[in-house]
Specification:
It contains 10 helices and 13 strands. The chain is an alpha/beta fold and about 325 residues long. It is globular, with a radius of gyration of 20 Å.
Length: about 325
């Protein structure tokens, strides 16, 4: 497949909120004498890239080059995050040290059940000085990129000025922009190539339910968001791609899920975002990129935890789907 072959020649700039996921796994054998809570004896500690860092990891898993622009603290979590990104071949120059802890989510798991999650984070917007540093890193990353991803988790990186300047740099270079939004700046991404909310995020932002089966509502949705296309993720129902041509009687496409088995949906959205960006950079249309990303999501949810999907795995999934459809 020519698009997959071209993927390795692309470089993606990912700007957004990076996180470090920590998993402490162990056993519960007693209740604490200090309070009515279980005592977990930790047997294993595992680290994983989360948020925008997981998108970067997925891009690297496809075989493309990637640079992550994000904020980190000056703590051990930042050192761990940087080490893990370097290990997957990600450029780490865009990690900007700021005066707050690195967003870290620690999950304590006993006998495959999560007991508690501890979040260490500050989610206020960054200071003007920190924003200037992020802007410099973002504009430099876009200069050498073939596509831009804006990955928003409402942790303070994607403030309006960073969004505006990054998208302006992408438009000036003529490269596609993929946005994974959150509520705080939901309507700040005018001009994006593909805008990728899930149904809950979209309805929360609009303050109303969305009936994608009713064509009359779709042109107004795309026009209000000011984007070229909306890729609405629908969980087990797959996706719906709505592009700016929908007002002319076309541009609305339902993409059914290809997943055979669903073990874990964690990280599927990041996989979709990464594949969209790489495929658009390689020359795919929004519809082609969305169909390919949907296949990648079908593979990812068959794995435990946040995982990457390689081109070989994607081709195998496509062949399996084609064989099943032919029967």
């Amino acid at each position: 497949m020519s698009l997959l072959a071209a993927a390795r020649e692309q470089r993606i700039a990912v700007i957004g909120d990076a996180m470090l996921d920590v998993y402490l796994k162990g056993d519960v054998t007693r209740i604490s004498p200090e309070a009515p809570v279980p005592v977990v004896r930790v047997r294993d500690r595992r680290f994983a890239l989360g948020g925008a860092a997981n998108v970067a990891q997925n891009v690297a898993g496809i075989g493309a080059g990637v640079e992550l622009v994000a904020s980190v603290g000056t703590d051990q979590s930042a050192a761990q995050l940087k080490e893990m990104l370097a290990a997957i071949g990600s450029d780490t120059r865009g990690l900007v040290p700021v005066n707050r802890p690195t967003t870290t989510k620690t999950r304590i798991v006993a006998r495959s059940q999560q007991v508690v999650r501890v979040d260490e984070e500050v989610d206020d917007d960054h200071s003007p000085h920190e924003v200037e540093q992020l802007l410099a890193a973002a504009e430099r990353a876009v200069e050498s990129a073939d596509a831009l991803v804006l990955e928003d988790y409402n942790k303070g990186v994607l403030v309006p000025l960073v969004i505006e300047r990054a998208m302006h740099a992408a438009r000036a270079k003529g490269i596609p922009v993929v946005v994974d939004p959150k509520y705080r700046n939901f309507f700040a991404y005018h001009g994006a190539t593909i805008f990728k909310p899930n149904m809950r995020e979209l309805e929360d932002a609009l303050g109303a339910s969305v009936d994608i089966e009713h064509p009359a509502t779709l042109p107004a949705l795309v026009q209000r968001l000011g984007v070229e296309a909306v890729l609405l993720t629908l969980s087990e129902k797959g996706m719906a791609l709505i592009d700016k041509n929908v007002a002319d009687g076309g541009g609305a496409h339902r993409i059914p899920t290809t997943a055979r088995e669903v073990y874990d949906v964690v990280g599927a959205g990041d996989t979709v975002t990464a594949w969209l960006a790489v495929m658009l950079a390689a020359g795919a249309t929004p519809l082609e990129a969305s169909v390919i990303a949907n296949f990648a999501a079908g593979v990812e949810v068959g794995k435990l935890g946040a995982a990457t999907v390689s081109p070989v795995e994607l081709l195998d999934a496509y062949d399996d789907h084609a064989s099943s459809a032919a029967k």
